[in-house]
Amino acid sequence: MDNTQKPAWKLAIRAILFVFIFALLFFWVSYLLRPVDIYRETVTGYYAEPNNSLDMVFVGGSVCFKSWAPLVAWDTHGFTSYDFATDALPPQLIRYYVAETLKSQSPVLLLIDLRPFEFGDKTFERGIKYMHREAALRRGIDSFSYSFNRLDMINSSVPKNYPRLQYVFDIAKYHTNIDKLTADNLRYSFNRWPSPTKGFTILTEHMEAVRYDYADITETKALSETMETLLRELLIYLQGIKSIQVLFIVTPYSLYVAEDQMLHNEMARLVREYGFDYLDCNGLYDEIGLDFAVDYYDNSHVNVAGALKFTRFLAAYLAARYALPDRRNDPAYETWQRASERFATELGEALSLLQENIGSEGYIDAP
Amino acid sequence: MDREQVLHRVNAVFRDIFDDDTLAITEENSAADIPDWDSLTHIALLAEIEECFGIRFSMKDVLGMQKVGNLLDIIVHHT
Amino acid sequence: MNLISLQFLVFCIALLVLYYLVPKRFQWWLLLLGSAVFFLLTGTPYTIIYLLISIVSAWLAGRYIQTQNNRRRKRAVFIAEIILNVGMLAALKYTNFLLSTTESLVNLFGANLSLGTVSWVSAIGISFYTLQVVGYLCDVYWGISQAQRNPFKFALFVSYFPQISSGPISRYHQLEELLFAGHGFDHKTVTFGLQRMLWGFFKKLVIAERLTAFVNSVYGAPHTYQGAYIWLGTVAFLIQLYADFSGNMDIVLGLSESLGIRLTENFRAPLFARNVQAFWQRWHITLGAWFKDYVMFPILRSRAWAKMGRRLKTRFGKNTARRIPAWLGMLVLWVGIGIWHGNGWQFIFQGLWFFCIIVLGQLCAPLFDTLRRKLCIREKSFIWHLFQSLRTCLLFAVGLVFFRAQSLNHAFGMLFSAVTVFNPGAIFSVQTLALLGGWENLRIVLPAIALLLFVDVLHARGNSLRAWAARQNIALRWVLYYALLFAVLLFGMYGGGYSPGEFIYGGF
User: CB-CB: which of B39, B47, B63 is closest to C144?
Assistant: First the structure.
């Protein structure tokens, strides 16, 4: 069979087909080789949610998926939500997470965690800022499915002197995983797999945290120039999105630096300047019912008991203020009901385990 | 001098250089056919042939020889 | 622009597409433009001045030599132009070597001279394109080729980007027809070329890169790794160099093939050569051929050599008269090749080593033949061929020690250690396994090497894998292509903070 005698259009079609199949295989293999961990599961779980099925999406860093338990909110108020967040999310990525959300969901409410703006500009180590940490960037970027949004995210978030191409084609970093493939890798090879907890991570260890009451501090402290610019950009971007409400939130934690409260006040001012809502949970420990001796996992994050309290409180708060539907009797959302029942069992077990840990006391290193 | 005679005399030189009295080269032979025919013996060969026929090869001739046939062409050209 | 980079791939694809879109008579202009872009993006841009000097002066000289009738003037311009080009190469590449050698020599007599070093950046591929230019001048001077009338066409010949940074070193008359002719799109040519490039990437990324760490460890700390390590490290280097260099050739030749321009092969299953002389006719073929045609032959045919031959004949007889001048000529060739490889005494020793081995080989050939006959082994038998190949590779590997070691002293030290330190068990130690990258690395690189040897055997027997694949049905074909593509993507060493090693001959 002499190929040179085939008509040009046939060869062209073949070439295009070859490249097209290669691209599909390439994406699949890239997904196959990505590491499987809780950060990836959060994102792949998000993609597995049916289109336009989420009423609220919580975007931000680790406080999101460690504090807000979507299935508890379903249980109490019947609205659907998801923790679309990854560990130490660099603040410049938030707007791309919002954009990614809007691609397949049309939530009533967008909940945005403001903590990333607090520490983003601080130096982590060796002159590298938190917002430029490779590990944090990769956690935030790598799990995304291939898309132009992901490309934009990389172009604007990854510093120029980093090997950006290896972020775009993360196979460059992960191809050595070929040796360590497991059944899990196969399961996640289409980059979507339902998360039974809707993105939430159950933490069963505890630490005796200290409660600081700085709620009466009203002074503000300016954010760094980079952070303020970033936050303003995000706010302007959000202003351009119609038919969605946004609430900026600071979750309750051990506020060991009083200045941070001043930063919160400043962020509140900025957020309100653009007409958005703001909630600082750090004046509401009693309302939430938090006991710093047992409800905390570390200084920044609540454990499962704290999350339970926090979610109940916030769900009520949100249901009262925003038009969040109650879907508990909606047959289309039956999967949520079942998920909630399964979660209830898991929750029960987790709380018992936590109780044991509290009894035996001590702080166990974070996973 | 015709080609046959040239070939005959060239063959004699080959026999001498390669120390093999049974050698009978043809126009199609090249360095691949005789194991000891490397670049060094090639030069020695050409020197002997020059002396034998009283001619002088140019560098163009030397580099242009792929097979015995080329060699004969060049010899005939020079004589 | 590293050959292993997305930048290069994009460049190739863009060029290929444009090449077959432009009218045929503009194709060589596109190649010239591409070569200029390639040169400027690889290495330091201002060094293009050296390339331009070579091109312009050689073009003018070529035209002058072609049209001039006066023999004296022709010769003068010819020699002057060679001196200019070789001089530039020498100045840029060997100044530090000359300075340090002079320093050492003078200081032997008690002086305390310190000449310092220069840090001149040489042009990419200067070692390669200089040879090509000098070859062209000789061809014109000797009447083998007509001087190129068009300076831009000549510029393309000298700077043709697939071959400028790593060869092959082409002859003008070979390249002339193909380079400037128009090439219509031929599906087979393009796809075969691309497949060859893919194979080159496989060799570089899956084999050569995976051996780099081990070779670097051994050669980086030869006092720590003695005896058997040096053997193993050198064998690894032989395979690494072969995979890297021939892989480069596959990429370069494949790219050029897909443009319709077939360049000469630089490798022809060298690991199966039966003796070192034959090895060098299969390894870096165009280099050996260039030195043979443009250095050794002119020397052997010079008046001085003829005189020497005659004197020896009267004194020592015909055989000696033939051998001595021949060997002296070959000595010049090998010293030349040694010098070409690098600016240090170790490279000259490398050349000398091969010279000695080849001469010894010729002298000992009858001995080995007797040995073989006594052992009743047939000459064409596999076992004899295997013995010869292994012996050849070993001897070549010794030469490589000079090439790869940090200095001449290190090279001698390593060779000494290799024969005096007896620790064969070290090869099987846990430490060695770790240095080799563990089983994770070995279980990929060893099968890859086996595949490489298998393909070489097939090619040596005249089979064309690409043609065979093209005859299979489309599904099988595509599975094979995807398999190779993903083998490179998954098993290649790249990315993740790892930068592919610079092409070993890249500083040339």
Answer: B63
| Region of residue C13 (left: phi > 0; alpha: psi -120 to 50; beta: else) | alpha
Residues 10-69 of B with CB under 8 A from C: 38-40, 43-44, 46-47, 57-60, 62-64
A13-34: per-residue pLDDT in tens? 999 999 999 999 999 999 999 9
Helices (H) and strands (E) in chain C, counts: 23, 0
B25 touches B10 (CB < 8 A): yes
**CB–CB contact A1 C485 (8 Å):** no
The C-alpha atoms of residue B53 and residue B12 are separated, in whole angstroms, by 12
Give the integer Cα–Cα distance in Å for A320 and C290: 87
CA angle C351, C357, C362 (to 5 degrees): 130
Residue C384 has which token pair? 């004899």
What's residue C167's pLDDT? 83
DSSP H or E stretch at residue A246: strand A245-250
Predicted TM-score (pTM) of this structure: 0.89
User: Tokens representing A198?
Assistant: 């809707």
Per-residue tokens: A330: 């909606």
- pLDDT digit string, tens, across residues C43-66: 888 889 999 999 999 999 999 999
Q: What distance in Å separates the CA atoms of residue A256 and residue C27, rounded to the nearest whole number?
A: 70
| Helix count and strand count (H, E) for chain A | 16, 7
Q: What is the DSSP string of C187-250?
A: HHHHHHHHHHHHHHHHIIIIIIHHHHHHHHHHHH-TTTS-THHHHHHHHHHHHHHHHHHHHHHH
- φ, ψ of residue C287 in degrees (nearest 5): -70, -50
Under DSSP, is residue A106 helix (H, G, I), strand (E, B) or coil?
coil
Cβ pair A318, A109 in contact under 8 A: yes
Contact status, residue C241 vs residue C504, Cβ threshold 8 Å? yes
Phi, psi of A110 (to 5 degrees): -115, 125
